[in-house]
């Protein structure tokens, strides 16, 4: 296989080389050029490539003489240069011989007079001179090449203004003969022209010389050929019958100034006899004019003369402009901004075109130009920038003053906006979203915004494009999916392209507006209705519920125990709160109803009592069962420790009790405890229903001398007093004995007696006198603690009972039966 | 005393090694040839006689020595006489600048006393009769220009020695010599082509080999002064 490929390559090489190596082809198109005083170069077309070393020899001879051969260089096989100038006016015959290893061949012979192939040296020392007599001519002079001495020449003269790039040609027939100077006519005054010249044999045989070096000259001045553009601006803030008028004009272009403008002359005419002349070097003049009509004229002056006058009518203050141009439009063309309009029907003296760049950042600084009254199409002759919005105003100027201006916007060249619009959501619904955006600032528009394109998509969905007209600033996207994140971007397009603004995302809500309310409100209503029904039901069945949850506990104070007791204290009508606790000191009244028949202890009740034991030591101290009260005669059953359950049980079996517990008002401890004591074994449940008993108490209360001295009521008067009482009962580890309590009460009574005087009539007291002997009776353990009032007060401060819970006697108390 | 070197035919002078020959040079006897001018153009002491063979053909008025027809390598130009006229004008236009350039290059006293030193009419060119027939005028023109060419060649060689750096003068001398050489070629072609004339006359030149430097300069100045006058007459004649 390799051998086969090798043979193929060898065959191809042989084929190619055989095809390439050829004898030289006959040279064609032989031609020569004689460079004056230098050399003669001949060129030819060598034909196909021979791939062999081929020598090209240029041979030349006269009719009488042969010349040395000229051998072409290897790198330029198509030309050869004789290093001497051939003799003119003697025909020479020239040909080319090509020769290589495979053969030789000769080109066609050409026979020519070298003078007919000559390329003269260019004219030199070209000079330009102006004429003071004629501002439109320049005189050229030059030195001809030496060949001119025996050869007739013709010339080519070109010229241009200094700033132009294209050359104008002097008519050839004017320069068809030998000369060394020429006067160029019809030139513009005071204009710098650049000239160049070349020559060739007059009969056209041969070649043009190279161009001479350029020479320039300035034509002489002439008077300005045109009046300056003239316009005015009136400051709107005129005062005292005068108005500041700013007259402005344009410098004449050089081709109209025809010289250096020395100054401008402004003439203001109010009446035919009122002239005001100003000579100004600047191009503006501010004058204070009255509200009358003025005629302003302007002329420009140079060294030679004055221009025609430019006339402008400044109308009176009450002049009403009218007759604007019609169909005003502006368009770019050939890198110029063209303005076209339809002339009004009235005769127009001239038009004033004003323009400025619209920008949000900079004010509109107008430029202007003037056009003749016959013009209705022109371009703005200013330094216009691309991508800028121009506000163009055209004002026709009539004989009696300016007409109404008309404006149009245009761009010299539009571009894509440099920033895209920033889109945001105005409102987002479950299936639609209202997008809104601001119009792009004119500085970033770079062109007329033709339309907007909104692209939106979900995270994994296809992008959807929507085109929106440029006049809109909001758009509603519909058919959206609820609870979905959407990405939105928006582009603004001009004629030249678009630009996207920043991406924006929003999420459609899961529920439409009001949908949640439609669900929640009925549910709430249903709940309320259910609750209401439940309340109504409970209200209707309150007895049953109360029986199960909060059974009635009879108020022992309203029982008939007092009647049953042999030492019934004066009974109070507890219902008459106005009398007893007008200030509402009774805040908590707990009643525990204990079934007598229940032999078992009530663990829960007891437990609850334990829980409150510590907190309610004072209560414990205050409260005493009826049996406790009965312990006035027998203190043991009422003051018993927790270990003495048995004795307590014994008491329970025999004594019913009631406890009236009250607390102070707002942390005030009532100074006097109310006890209702019954030693009766009758149940107390009927006490509440027997108001006559209360009536009885009232009756008893009214009799001072009849009152037993074993109980007393005292209305709280001062907190100190109360605290003393309470602190006493709360002393820990005190020996709880009725005697002590009674002793304390005695002390308290003494103090209270003293204080109660200050309480006035509002302070009610029920005082039960207890004799000291009774307090320290045989029921005590014989140990009498000395009791000092100071210590008691300190103890009271340490703990203040706030409420009184129903007492179930655990420590030797009385358990209701 | 020093003598100007003669021009070596194998030198690097780029001009054609001109020889006015006809077709018969290759075939005819030596008597038919015009000796190569550069080779014989040198100043010798005294008057050097050069032989210029004029080969007369039929119609020339006198029989040619060997009856050999005159044939050129190429036909002469159809406007050959115009070319001759233009060549004479060209020479005439350059004669005065050449003369000025020459004596200015030689240094004083030649520029100051050019009229007295160069204007003496001792230099004589071969005669020329402007009112003669074309053939005669061409033959006389040939003798005059051949004479001048021989003399000019010696002047060129001397100036390359005496004023080796005056390229402007050298260029003018070379250009004039070339033009004269072309004129001679055209005349020869015209005589041969139209009149079948081969020139074999002997022309005597000046032998200046023993002159001093000033005298050589002066002889050249006198030659160019005379040439200026002659060429103007010749240009007028055609």
Automatic annotation (TrEMBL), chain A:
Region described as Disordered: 615-650, 671-691
Origin superkingdom: Eukaryota
Keywords, in A-Z order: Cell membrane, Disulfide bond, Glycoprotein, Immunoglobulin domain, Membrane, Phosphoprotein, Receptor, Repeat, Signal, Transmembrane, Transmembrane helix
CC annotations in GO: CRLF-CLCF1 complex; external side of plasma membrane; receptor complex
Cellular localisation: Cell membrane
CDD domains cross-referenced by the UniProt entry: FN3
PROSITE patterns, per database record: FN3, HEMATOPO_REC_L_F2
Residue ranges, compositional bias (Polar residues): 675-684
One of the record's GO molecular function terms: cytokine binding
Composition bias, Low complexity: 629-642
Topology versus the membrane: Single-pass type I membrane protein
Coiled coil: none
Name the record gives this protein: Interleukin-6 receptor subunit beta isoform X3
Species of provenance: Trichechus manatus latirostris (Florida manatee)
TrEMBL record, chain B:
Matches recorded under Pfam families: LIF_OSM
GO cellular component: extracellular space
Predominant location category: secreted
InterPro entries in the record: 4_helix_cytokine-like_core, Leukemia_IF, Leukemia_IF/oncostatin, Leukemia_IF/oncostatin_CS
Location(s) in or outside the cell: Secreted
GO biological process: immune response; leukemia inhibitory factor signaling pathway; positive regulation of cell population proliferation; regulation of cell communication; regulation of cell differentiation; regulation of signaling
Keyword set includes NADP: no
Alphabetized GO MF terms: cytokine activity; growth factor activity; leukemia inhibitory factor receptor binding
Keywords of this entry: Cytokine, Disulfide bond, Glycoprotein, Growth factor, Secreted, Signal
Disordered: annotated segments: 1-36
Function: LIF has the capacity to induce terminal differentiation in leukemic cells. Its activities include the induction of hematopoietic differentiation in normal and myeloid leukemia cells, the induction of neuronal cell differentiation, and the stimulation of acute-phase protein synthesis in hepatocytes.
Family in the record: Belongs to the LIF/OSM family.
Protein known as: Leukemia inhibitory factor
Naturally occurring in which organism (per UniProt): Trichechus manatus latirostris
Gene: LOC101355614
């Amino acid at each position: 296989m390799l051998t086969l490929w090798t043979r193929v390559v060898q065959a191809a090489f042989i084929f190619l080389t055989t095809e390439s190596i050829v004898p030289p082809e006959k040279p064609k198109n032989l031609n020569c050029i004689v460079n004056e005083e230098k050399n003669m170069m001949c060129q030819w077309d060598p034909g196909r490539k021979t791939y062999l070393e081929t020598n090209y020899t240029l041979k030349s001879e006269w009719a009488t003489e042969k010349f040395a051969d000229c051998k072409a260089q290897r790198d330029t096989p198509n030309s050869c240069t004789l290093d001497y100038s051939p003799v003119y006016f003697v025909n020479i015959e020239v040909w080319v011989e090509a020769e290589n290893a495979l053969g030789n061949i000769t080109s066609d012979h050409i026979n020519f007079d070298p003078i007919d192939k000559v390329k003269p040296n260019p004219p030199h020392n070209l000079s330009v001179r102006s004429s003071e007599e004629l501002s439109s001519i320049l005189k050229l002079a030059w030195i001809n090449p030496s060949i001119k001495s025996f050869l007739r020449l013709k010339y080519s003269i070109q010229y241009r203004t200094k700033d132009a790039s294209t050359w104008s040609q002097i008519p050839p027939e004017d320069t068809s003969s030998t000369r060394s100077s020429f006067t160029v006519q019809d030139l513009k005054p005071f204009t710098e022209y650049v000239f160049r010249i070349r020559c060739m044999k007059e009969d056209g045989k041969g070649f043009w010389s190279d161009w001479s070096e350029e020479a320039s000259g300035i034509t002489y001045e002439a008077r300005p050929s045109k009046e300056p553009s003239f316009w005015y601006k009136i400051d709107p803030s005129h005062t005292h019958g005068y108005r500041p008028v700013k007259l402005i004009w344009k410098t004449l272009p050089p081709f109209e100034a025809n010289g250096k403008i020395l100054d401008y002359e402004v003439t203001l005419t109010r009446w035919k006899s009122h002239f005001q002349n100003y000579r100004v070097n600047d191009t503006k003049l501010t004058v204070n004019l009255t509200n009358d009509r003025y005629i302003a004229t302007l002329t420009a002056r140079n060294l030679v003369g004055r221009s025609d006058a430019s006339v402008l009518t400044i109308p009176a203050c009450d002049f009403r402009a009218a007759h604007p141009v019609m169909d005003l439009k502006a368009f770019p063309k050939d890198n110029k901004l063209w303005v076209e309009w339809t002339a009004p029907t009235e005769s127009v003296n001239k038009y004033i075109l004003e323009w400025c760049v619209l920008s949000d950042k900079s004010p509109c600084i107008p430029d202007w130009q003037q056009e003749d009254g016959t013009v209705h199409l022109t371009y703005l002759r200013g330094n216009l920038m691309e991508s800028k919005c121009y506000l163009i105003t055209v004002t026709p100027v009539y004989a009696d003053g300016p007409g109404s201006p008309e404006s149009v916007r245009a761009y010299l060249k539009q571009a894509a906006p440099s920033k895209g619009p920033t889109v945001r959501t105005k409102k987002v619904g479950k299936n639609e979203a209202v997008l809104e955006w601001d119009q792009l600032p004119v500085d970033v528009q770079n062109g007329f915004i033709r339309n907007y394109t909104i692209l939106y998509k979900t995270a994994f969905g296809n992008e959807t494009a929507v085109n929106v007209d440029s006049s809109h600033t909001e758009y509603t996207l519909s058919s959206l999916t609820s609870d979905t994140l959407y990405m939105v971007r928006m582009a603004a397009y001009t004629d030249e392209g678009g630009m996207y603004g920043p991406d924006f995302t929003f999420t459609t809500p899961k529920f439409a507006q009001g949908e949640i309310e439609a669900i929640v409100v009925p549910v709430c209503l249903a709940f309320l209705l259910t609750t209401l029904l439940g309340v109504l039901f409970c209200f209707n069945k309150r007895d049953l519920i109360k029986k199960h949850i909060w059974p009635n506990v009879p108020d022992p104070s309203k029982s008939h125990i007092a009647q049953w007791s042999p030492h019934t204290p004066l009974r109070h009508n507890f219902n008459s709160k106005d009398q007893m606790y007008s200030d509402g000191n009774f805040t908590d009244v707990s009643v525990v109803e204990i079934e007598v028949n229940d032999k078992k202890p009530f663990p829960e009740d007891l437990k609850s009592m334990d829980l409150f034991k510590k907190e309610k030591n004072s209560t414990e101290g205050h409260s005493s069962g009826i049996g406790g009260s009965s312990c006035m005669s027998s203190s043991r059953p009422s003051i018993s420790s927790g270990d003495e359950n048995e004795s307590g049980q014994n008491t329970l079996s025999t004594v019913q009790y009631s406890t009236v517990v009250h607390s102070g008002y707002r942390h005030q401890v009532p100074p006097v405890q109310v006890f209702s004591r019954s030693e009766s074994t009758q149940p107390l449940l009927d006490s509440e229903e027997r108001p006559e008993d209360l009536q009885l108490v009232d009756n008893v209360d009214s009799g001072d001398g009849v009152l037993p001295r074993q109980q007393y009521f005292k209305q709280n008067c001062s907190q100190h007093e109360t605290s003393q009482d309470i602190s006493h009962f709360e002393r820990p580890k005190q020996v709880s004995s009725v005697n002590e309590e009674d002793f304390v009460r005695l002390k308290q009574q003494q103090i209270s007696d003293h204080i109660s005087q200050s309480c006035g009539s509002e302070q009610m007291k029920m005082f039960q006198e207890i004799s000291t002997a009774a307090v320290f009776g045989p029921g005590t353990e014989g140990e009498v603690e000395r009791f000092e009032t100071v210590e008691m007060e300190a103890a009271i401060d340490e703990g203040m009972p706030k409420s009184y819970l129903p007492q179930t006697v655990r420590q030797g108390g009385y358990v209701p039966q | 005393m020093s003598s100007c070197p003669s021009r070596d035919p194998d030198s690097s002078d780029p001009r054609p090694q001109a020889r006015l020959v006809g077709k018969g040079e290759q075939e005819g006897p030596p008597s038919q040839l015009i000796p190569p001018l550069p080779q014989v153009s040198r100043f010798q002491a005294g008057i050097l006689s050069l032989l210029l063979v004029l080969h007369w053909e039929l119609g020339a008025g006198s029989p040619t020595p060997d009856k050999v027809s005159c044939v050129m390598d190429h036909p002469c130009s159809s406007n050959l006489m115009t070319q001759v006229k233009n060549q004479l004008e060209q020479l005439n236009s350059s004669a005065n600048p050449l003369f000025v350039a020459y004596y200015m290059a030689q240094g004083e006293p030649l520029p100051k006393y050019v009229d007295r030193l160069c204007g003496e009419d001792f230099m004589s060119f071969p005669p020329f009769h402007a009112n003669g027939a074309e053939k005669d005028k061409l033959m006389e023109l040939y003798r005059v220009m051949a004479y001048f060419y021989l003399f000019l060649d010696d002047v060129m060689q001397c100036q390359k020695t005496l004023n080796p750096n005056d390229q402007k003068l050298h260029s003018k001398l070379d250009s004039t010599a070339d033009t004269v050489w072309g004129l001679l070629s055209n005349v020869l072609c015209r005589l041969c082509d139209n009149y079948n004339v081969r020139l074999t006359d002997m022309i005597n030149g000046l032998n200046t080999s023993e002159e001093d430097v000033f005298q050589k300069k002066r002889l050249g100045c006198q030659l160019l002064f005379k040439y200026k006058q002659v060429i103007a007459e010749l240009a007028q004649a055609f």
